[in-house]
């Protein structure tokens, strides 16, 4: 694919992208306010993101953003790289954004899959959106182009944001389908913390990280290369087990060592229970309910079980 690039000091677009000056991202205050209020008022279906998350804490900042990269992550999922205009915009690994689209009356809700470090260093966040008939997802897949302007606001109570003085914890991440998105953000943040440790910087000392990730087939396992790159970078700290439930084609030699044909089992999760371990679960509600209940039945404290239900 041919792509053009405009270099911006301190910024890099890594997904075949065109980026423009941050100044061009600014929406007028009145336009941004109108976009926000109109979208909220018209988001009325019970399945809509705004209604499902009405009681969830959000940050006050609504920032303009510009699409500076896009890629197909699977036959049904498209990733977007967004350049964020507001310098005060921030998020914690695992959180999502309200996604406001000019001309679309419904507000989207998409988990951030990049690490907070990418935003700090390059003023960008990454989203991965599954194709559905919901208007925001349709817009992402059918109408969104490079330089499209949107607005975003951070929300969510599902996150990993350890402070330097906190006790070291192991992480077990359990993902189903596109539920990998917030867990990939947490995994990438954990890798950043490990790099800090390796560089002997003062900061949080994280334990081990284990990812269990299930999808229909290998083509629907998102960000495979990114995940395996982290496993290879930190072989003593990061491990992953990938699962496919309806595989019909041959599995590549590169993936085979990590792949199990079938579902994630209770025993595999139970083997990782310890008093130092935090569990993060994101996937279809039946999967989320099953594993959170099994962990409770195995006497894992509720405060160590974190889950996100998106569907």
Structure, explained:
The structure is a single chain. The protein has eight helices and twelve strands. It is an alpha/beta fold. The chain has two domains: 56-155, Elongation Factor Tu (Ef-tu), domain 3; 169-309, Nucleotide-binding domain of ferredoxin-NADP reductase (FNR) module (Rossmann fold, 3-Layer(aba) Sandwich). The strands form two sheets. It has a six-stranded antiparallel β-sheet with strand order 4-3-6-1-2-5. A six-stranded parallel β-sheet has the order 10-9-8-7-11-12, with helices on both faces. The two termini are 33 Å apart. 41% of the residues are buried.
What multimeric state do the chains show? single chain
Summing up helix and strand content along with how strands pair, one would put the structural category as alpha/beta
What is the residue-mean pLDDT, rounded to a whole number?
A: 88
Distance between the termini: 33 Å
Integer tally of domains: 2
What would the keywords be for this entry?
311 residues, alpha/beta, Elongation Factor Tu (Ef-tu), domain 3, Rossmann fold, 2 domains, six-stranded antiparallel beta sheet, six-stranded parallel beta sheet, 8 helices, 12 strands, disordered N terminus, Oxidoreductase_NAD-binding
Topology:
Elements: H1 29-42, H2 49-52, E1 63-74, E2 77-84, E3 96-100, E4 108-111, H3 116-122, E5 124-130, H4 135-142, E6 149-155, E7 170-176, H5 180-198, E8 209-215, H6 224-233, E9 238-244, E10 259-261, H7 266-270, E11 277-283, H8 285-297, E12 305-309
Parallel strand pairs: 7-8, 7-11, 8-9, 9-10, 11-12
Antiparallel strand pairs: 1-2, 1-6, 2-5, 3-4, 3-6
Domain FAD-binding FR-type: 49-163
Protein name: Oxidoreductase NAD-binding domain-containing protein 1
GO molecular function: oxidoreductase activity
């Amino acid at each position: 694919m041919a792509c053009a690039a405009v270099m911006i000091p301190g910024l890099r677009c890594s997904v075949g992208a065109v980026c423009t000056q941050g100044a061009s991202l600014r929406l007028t205050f009145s336009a941004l306010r109108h976009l926000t209020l109109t979208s909220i008022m018209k988001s009325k279906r019970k399945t809509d993101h705004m209604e499902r998350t009405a009681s969830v804490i959000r940050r006050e900042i609504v920032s303009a953003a510009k699409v500076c990269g896009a890629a197909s992550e699977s036959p049904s999922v498209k990733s977007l790289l967004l350049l964020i205009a507001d310098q005060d915009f921030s998020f914690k690994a695992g959180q999502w954004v309200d996604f406001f689209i000019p001309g679309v009356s419904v507000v989207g809700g998409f988990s951030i899959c990049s690490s907070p470090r990418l935003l700090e260093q390059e003023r960008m966040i990454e989203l991965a959106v599954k194709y559905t008939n919901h208007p925001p997802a349709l817009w992402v897949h059918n109408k969104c182009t490079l330089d499209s302007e949107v607005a975003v606001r951070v929300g969510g109570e599902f996150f990993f944001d350890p402070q330097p003085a906190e006790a070291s914890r192991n992480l077990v991440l359990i993902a189903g389908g596109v539920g990998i998105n917030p867990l990939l953000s947490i995994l990438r943040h954990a890798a950043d913390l490990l790099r800090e440790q390796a560089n002997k910087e003062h900061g949080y000392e994280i334990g081990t990280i284990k990812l269990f990730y299930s999808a229909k087939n290998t083509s629907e396992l998102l960000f495979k290369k990114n995940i395996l790159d982290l496993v290879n970078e930190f072989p003593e700290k990061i491990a992953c087990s990938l699962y496919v439930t309806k595989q019909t084609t041959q599995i590549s030699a590169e993936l085979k060592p990590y792949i199990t044909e079938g579902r994630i089992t209770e025993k595999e999760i139970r083997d990782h229970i310890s008093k130092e371990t935090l569990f993060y679960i994101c996937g279809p509600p039946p999967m989320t309910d099953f594993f959170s209940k099994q962990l409770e039945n195995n006497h894992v404290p509720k405060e160590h079980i974190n889950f996100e239900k998106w569907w």
